[in-house]
Amino acid sequence: GGETELIINKQRRGPVGKIDLIFISEYARFEPRSFREIK
């Protein structure tokens, strides 16, 4: 898998920020990096 960063710069009435994600190629999806470290 590979690591990436999702940046949320604008969201109506919601928080902004950054989320560290990891790509799980086996399932073709992204998961929060911290979630993957717990498994």
Strand content: over 45%
How many independent structural domains? 1
How many β strands by DSSP? 3
Distance between the termini: 15 Å
Query: Unreliable runs, pLDDT <50, ≥5 residues?
Result: none
What would the average pLDDT be, to the nearest integer?
83
Tell me the Rg in angstroms. Answer: 12 Å
The H/E string reads EEEH
Number of helices: 1
Into which percent range does the helicity of residues fall?
Answer: 10-25%
Largest sheet: 3 strands, antiparallel
The helix/strand class is: alpha+beta
Structural shape: elongated
Strand order of the largest sheet: 1-2-3
Structural descriptors:
about 40 residues; three-stranded antiparallel sheet; single chain; 3 strands; about 45% strand; alpha+beta
Summarize the structure.
This protein has 39 residues and is an alpha+beta fold. The protein has one helix spanning 33-38, and strands at residues 3-8, 17-24, 29-32.
Overview of the molecule:
The protein has 39 residues and is α+β, with helices and mostly antiparallel strands. It has one domain. The protein has one helix at residues 33-38; strands spanning 3-8, 17-24, 29-32. The protein has a 3-stranded antiparallel sheet with strand order 1-2-3. The longest helix has 6 residues, at 33-38. It is elongated and about 35 Å long. The model has no long low-confidence stretch (mean pLDDT 83).
How are the secondary structure elements laid out?
Elements: E1 3-8, E2 17-24, E3 29-32, H1 33-38
